[in-house]
Design goal:
Elements (H helix, E strand, L loop, with lengths): L2 H19 L8 E5 L5 H9 L4 E4 L2 H10 L5 E4 L8 H4 L5 E5 L2 H10 L4 E6 L13 H10 L6 E7 L8 H20 L9 E3 L6 H6 L4 E4 L1 H4 L2 H9 L1
Parallel strand pairs: 1-2, 1-8, 2-3, 3-4, 4-5, 5-6, 6-7
Bound molecules: pyridoxal-5'-phosphate (PLP).
Pyridoxal-5'-phosphate binds next to strand 8 and helix 9.
GO molecular function: pyridoxal phosphate binding
Function: Pyridoxal 5'-phosphate (PLP)-binding protein, which is involved in PLP homeostasis.
Family: Belongs to the pyridoxal phosphate-binding protein YggS/PROSC family.
Length: about 230
């Protein structure tokens, strides 16, 4: 078995156990393999292992992989996106996880040829270093998108603080879920907002317990070739 198959099987086991603890069905959770730090070869290996959702965070990395990988997979853009780079990615992606401002929505509205599935990125913990709207800003922001024909708000996305404090991480995920439910209850045609993109290598189990429908897993699944090379160089 390749390393990725071994990793995937462990992650699947943990995910199923976490779903059980959260009284959820694991089949409602999709794994996005975050391939931003790995080569085309390793990305292809992930696809061969059965992964169909792939995440990239740079236009260059995304477009290079799309050009050479011919598989029928879903591409998720998970990084912050500069307005001037919208035109480079918007025709190639299936999901954008980082809608965080009106100027970005306006550029998508102008450039996209069909509706784009977007997650509104929320900075639940209000860390200075993180992108995203505060919880309070989410509903008014989504209301301003009502007349947009190319933006479909499928859900909310967050990154938990990088901490060992599991209770803090859990409270961030709980707040995102509450916010998502509040939006979903509005019944907006442009914002069904049924999905929750939360959880990474270190915290996906908590995220699944708290309702994640997409987890974004990089290092624990496909590794980090940059980091691995650094180790060799030491
Ligand atoms: C890199 C990245 C991930 C994956 O992180 P890992 O800790 O390697 O699993 C998930 N989400 C976003 C937004 C990222 O930038």
């Amino acid at each position: 078995m390749t390393k990725i198959l071994t990793n995937l099987s462990k992650i699947n086991d943990l995910l199923i156990a976490a779903a059980k603890r959260g009284n959820r069905n694991a089949s409602n959770v999709q794994i996005i393999a975050v391939t931003k730090e790995v080569s085309v070869e390793r990305t292809q290996e992930a696809i061969n292992a059965g992964l169909i959702h792939l995440g990239e965070n740079r236009p260059e990395g995304l477009n290079h992989k799309i050009a050479v990988i011919q598989a029928d997979v879903r591409w998720h853009y998970i990084g912050s996106l500069q307005t001037r780079k919208v035109k480079q990615v918007i025709h190639h992606i299936d999901y954008l996880h980082s809608l965080d401002r009106l100027s970005l929505a306006q550029e998508i509205e102008k450039r996209a040829e069909k509706p784009v599935k977007c997650f509104v990125q929320v900075n639940v913990s209000e860390e200075e270093s993180k992108h995203g709207l505060t919880v309070k800003e989410v509903l008014p922001f989504i209301e301003t998108l009502t007349s947009f024909t190319k933006i479909q708000v499928v859900g909310l996305m967050t990154m938990a603080p990088n901490t060992e404090d599991k209770a803090l991480i859990r409270s961030v995920f709980k707040q995102l879920k509450q916010c998502q439910q509040q939006i979903a209850e509005q019944g907006f045609a442009h914002a069904p907002c049924t999905e929750l993109s939360m959880g990474m290598s270190n915290d996906f189990e908590i995220a699944v317990e708290e309702g994640a429908t997409f987890v974004r897993v990089g290092t624990a699944l496909v590794g980090n070739e940059r980091g691995e090379q650094d180790e060799h160089e030491e």
